[in-house]
Amino acid sequence: MNFQLTDEEKMVQDTVRSFAQKELKPIAADIDKNHKIPDSIIKGLAELGLFGVYIPQEYGGAGLSFLSYAITVEEISKVCASTGVLISAHTSLCANSIYEFGTKEQKEKYLVPLASGQKIGCILLTEPEAGSDAANVSTTVKKEGDYYVSNGNKIFVTNGGYRDFGILIATHDKSLRHKGIDAFILDLKSEGVELQRNEDKMGIRGTYTSVFSLENVKIPKENLLGKESEGFKIAMDCLDGGRIGIASQALGIAEGAYEKALEYAKERKQFGKTLSEFQAIQFKLADMAMHIEAAKLLVYESAWIKDNLKNGASYNDLIIKSSMAKAYASETATYVTKEALQIHGGYGYIAEYEIERMYRDAKITEIYEGTNEVQRIVISKMLLK
């Protein structure tokens, strides 16, 4: 059993951390305030190969490990959770789906620009009546000659505002539920695809969370991903990896908040002593550190399993460990940011001190890409098998 990162993974960690601290941290508050990640940051991420960390080089990626990807999202999220989820949703939910299920032609046409950062990807899965119950999608597809024609509505589309490429999940027969669902590669600039709005959110305000309507959208038949009726399987498969991405984001948020609290506790004086000299604060810091270390072990182990599926690692282990990592790391993020804000006292409630933003950003990690209640359903089913 080896808990050491490889030299390559250490290099990724150092490189991403340096970029995050130098380029991203100084403008993280502005990203939150302006609801936009600057093009210069996206360009910088692309130049470092961070939009396709584990995608093979032949398809525009960096060809590194999945653990390197988890570390990337973690380090970016320490300073800006919006940018962390930009990378996570793009990679896990869109690029990975094409990598795992796409044809060679689909990979060359769509995966290369995604993995190289020329295009930003998303998934169009959630609907007003299909959240945790993903099999209840109502967006329809009907085959007409050389095209599929789609009609419906999609909400909560992370990265949708870039209007590049997305994975569309739709049904050809709603009565069949998950057995009637297909997946398609959709160009969001296609005729009939309307971006209705980008939501105004409590946290991760720098990333787009979009609402789309689809009216008679023609999708070329060669854009079917996998086979007909495999759409639900494809969506669930990409979410298995996506949970690790969100767990990595949550871990990064928690670490960033903890580092702020630790620094503040050492500097802030009350009653003639620094806060760090009070046992009440010491215990808070100890508990925060314990939760973070436990979360990190789960996140890294899940990523390791993903890396080793072809070397005998169990896919069932990936399902259960990624669900555990997502649930535990996200709850750790909420807990640690709350305690970090408490240590800061009134200053923690002021935007200038950044903890306020981290506190807002943390909560969504318990909700998207499968609520933690759903994660517990997944975990318990696997345990009872």
UniProtKB/TrEMBL annotation:
Required cofactors, per record?
FAD
Q: Which residues form a coiled coil?
A: none
Q: Which GO terms describe its molecular function?
A: flavin adenine dinucleotide binding; short-chain fatty acyl-CoA dehydrogenase activity
| Keywords of this entry | FAD, Flavoprotein, Oxidoreductase
Q: Name one Pfam family in it.
A: Acyl-CoA_dh_N
Source organism superkingdom: Bacteria
The residue ranges of the Acyl-CoA dehydrogenase/oxidase C-terminal domain are 230-383
Q: Which stretches make up the Acyl-CoA oxidase/dehydrogenase middle domain? A: 122-217
Which residues are in the Acyl-CoA dehydrogenase/oxidase N-terminal domain?
6-118
Question: Keyword Transcription: yes or no?
Answer: no
Q: What is its EC number?
A: 1.3.8.1
Family, per entry = Belongs to the acyl-CoA dehydrogenase family.
- Please identify the protein, giving its name as recorded: Butyryl-CoA dehydrogenase
Question: Origin organism of this chain?
Answer: Desulfurella amilsii
